[in-house]
Amino acid sequence: MHDISQPIPYLEPSKPTIIELRDIDYDYPGGRKALRRISLFIYEGDRLAVVGKNGAGKTTLAKLIAGIYKPTQGEIAIMKSQRIGMVLQDWDDQLFCPTVFEDIAFGLLLAGFSRREAEERVLEWARKLEIDEYLEREPHRLSYGERKRVVLAAVLALEPDILILDEPTVGLDRKSEGIIFDILRGFRGTIICISHDLFFLYFLCQRALVLKNGSVHHDYTMRDLVSQRGTLREHGLDFTFRFECCGGSSPVITRTKGRSFVDQGTSYLELYNYSYRYPGEITAIRNISLKIERGERVAVVGENGAGKSTLALCLVGLLKGEGTYLLEGREVCDRTRKTLWRRIGIVFQDARDQLFTSSCFEEVAFGVKRMGLSERETRERVKWALEALRLRAYEDKVPYHLSGGEKKRLALATILAMKPDVIILDEPTNDLDPEGEKILMEVLDEVESTLIVISHDVCFLSFLCDRALILENGCLKADVAYEEFLKAEHLSLGHHHEQDYRLRCCHAIRELFYSS
Length: 516
Hints:
Shape: globular
Strand content: 15-25%
CATH class of the largest domain: Alpha Beta
Strand order of the largest sheet: 5-6-7-3-8-9
CATH superfamily of the largest domain: P-loop containing nucleotide triphosphate hydrolases
Number of strands: 19
Helix content: 25-40%
Radius of gyration: 23 Å
Structural class: alpha/beta
């Protein structure tokens, strides 16, 4: 494991240029301009972080460099000998074979490797990324984070000279993140990494390219970027609110901490010996028993594949398991399961899965209309939800055209507008820039619904949750106060990687920040 106590030092460009962008513009169909007048040199061995607010043009720039898009104007010069590999933000777009083995082998066979050579490389990278036990599994049956490691293995097996990563840490538990981080630190080629995770970037990259409204606004060393709060704030990158969590000796207190809305002694939601098994697969959750009171803020934590998302889908009624499920003391049957959406809302891990209309207004209005509310009440709720998530000017925008973080906020707006009794959030900070994370915390701090939050982000959870349900291999391993979860005896349940990694990063950056 590489030492992460210090970031990789920035090396002045003494090595040759391998990519040059000259006055690049890119317009999406319909004329929406995504990039304008981008000029940029990337050098051999660069570790380049690409940062900026949601919608700044980061993913578009990456796809241009990878050759997925062609510029509307300008030129991109890439050394012919350079092989480029990219892990997309929506990495499910790169998985399409029946098994994990075939997905990793596909590119190798297409590139002309023999079956024997391809098999050797598949096994090598599967071992390195610790997914060798999944080789005969169907990719879509894996967890979100496990699928990301499969895609990375498929790309790295081709031995690219230039590796482009779009939000590589999204959806990963800290064990998976540690595996990927170690591999990337040892990668000998050039890395271009798009991320809102400044902790991760600080220890991986030497250089930071800041985009604003489709243009290059700054080209810093990584150290210079994180030490300038004014610049961070200007570009929606001010993550220093996290110092309050990671650096404090006591838990963060927000309005909802301390169960200010909890109707104590009255269980709103109960499971008894509840299990779910996917067809042809191992049991995803088994014999789970729990009670959640109205108004509680509950964190659901555990490693990738522990069963967290499956539990959420059972609670909202999208999956039907075996065992007893009670809502306000009444058993949920097939008939009542169909109406759970009125009382329990969920924001999926991948926001694309719940966005399907032609405008943001219609997206938020869809569920409200189904509840039978008047046109006036519907419009008022849509306006309130969009304003709360800072999407006021987005009413007529097409959801498909939004950035990943904007889609996430829109998905939450669709649920908030319905004002359900329970809101389940599956990895709510995925794809959000730091400004978006802060907005999300402020919104959730005002919501009086019961919150069930699935996340690998221990810091984010500490702002909201009083209680932690710890899942391991589909079982409820522990049900403790959140402060207890943060103590060392509970970090052994799969989250010591997270706490150790994030705290070390936060302490190092905070020291740099306040000394500058």
